[in-house]
Design a protein that fits this description.
Elements: E1 5-9, H1 12-17, E2 24-25, H2 26-29, E3 35-39, E4 45-50, E5 53-58, E6 63-65, E7 71-72, E8 74-78, E9 84-92, H3 96-101, E10 110-126, H4 137-140, E11 145-161, E12 172-179, E13 185-203, E14 205-209, H5 214-217, H6 226-234
Parallel strand pairs: 1-14
Antiparallel strand pairs: 1-8, 2-7, 3-4, 3-8, 4-5, 5-6, 9-13, 10-11, 10-13, 11-12, 12-13
Bound molecules: zinc ion.
Zinc ion binds next to strand 12.
Protein name: Alpha-acetolactate decarboxylase
GO molecular function: acetolactate decarboxylase activity
Enzyme class: lyase
Length: 235
């Protein structure tokens, strides 16, 4: 299916302020796309959706496939039909902007991005299961698992968000990784790509689906210094 829409489930305000209960079933969000990222109920892990499969990479590093009944607190999904793909080598996260900008002006629009390749290094984190009462996201990630993978082959999946939409989403590149064996991965802080294939699709629409449950409806979504909280949490 071709679509220029990014479907976003819940808001950064909700995630940052600690609305971690799963509110959107995989069966529902898979209607919004087969490609994307998110997080598990109670932050038990990171989600990466690729080729119609929704993977959960749990805090300790175990990977499993989500069932259609699993509920997620936050996700961004789209259908990925790359407009362009080209080989890249020896780049890290900071080079992604210039690589993409050389192809298309992304300053004012979103984009879905994918890199398949061999990585010298991928620096990851996975959030860990949170008990109620939930803390804020910034407090919860004190318990996150960090890991650096070396000489690994796999795929990066994620989104580019222009600065003007920081707060709606995470400005810059928000990307998740899963290895070719589907045995490891997580939210990506940074990477060093040896060589691979970068594909992208500009996205001109974002649709935000708000949860219907009382936890969201009644939540106080005021976050102190949201901009910095997001950069600290998802950068
Ligand atoms: Zn993430």
């Amino acid at each position: 299916m071709k679509s220029l829409i990014i479907n976003q489930y819940s808001t950064m305000h909700a995630l940052m302020s600690g609305v971690f209960d799963g509110m959107f079933a995989i069966a529902e969000i898979s209607q919004g796309g087969s490609f994307g990222i998110g997080c598990s109920h109670a932050l038990a892990g990171e989600m990466i959706a690729l080729d119609d499969t929704f993977f959960e990479i749990q805090g300790a590093g175990n990977v499993r496939r989500f069932s259609e009944y699993d509920q997620l607190p936050f996700a961004q999904l789209t259908y990925f039909n790359p407009s362009e793909q080209f080989p890249v080598s020896d780049i890290s996260k900071k080079d992604l902007y210039s690589e993409l900008s050389a192809q298309v002006n992304i300053d004012n629009i979103f984009a879905a991005v994918k890199i398949e390749g061999i990585f010298k290094k991928v620096w990851l984190r996975r959030t860990n299961y949170q008990k109620k009462p939930y803390k804020t996201f910034i407090e919860a990630i004190v318990e996150q698992s960090e890991e650096t993978l070396h000489n690994v082959s796999g795929v990066l999946v994620g989104f580019w968000t222009p600065d003007i939409f920081h707060g709606i989403s995470v400005a810059g590149f928000h990307i998740h990784f899963i290895d070719d064996e589907r045995k490891n991965g997580g939210h990506v802080f940074d990477f060093e790509l040896k060589n691979g294939l970068l594909s992208y699709e500009p996205k001109q629409n974002i649709k935000i689906h708000l949860p219907e449950n009382s936890e969201y409806i009644n939540a106080d979504l005021t976050v102190d210094d949201l901009d910095n909280a997001i950069r600290k949490a998802e950068g």
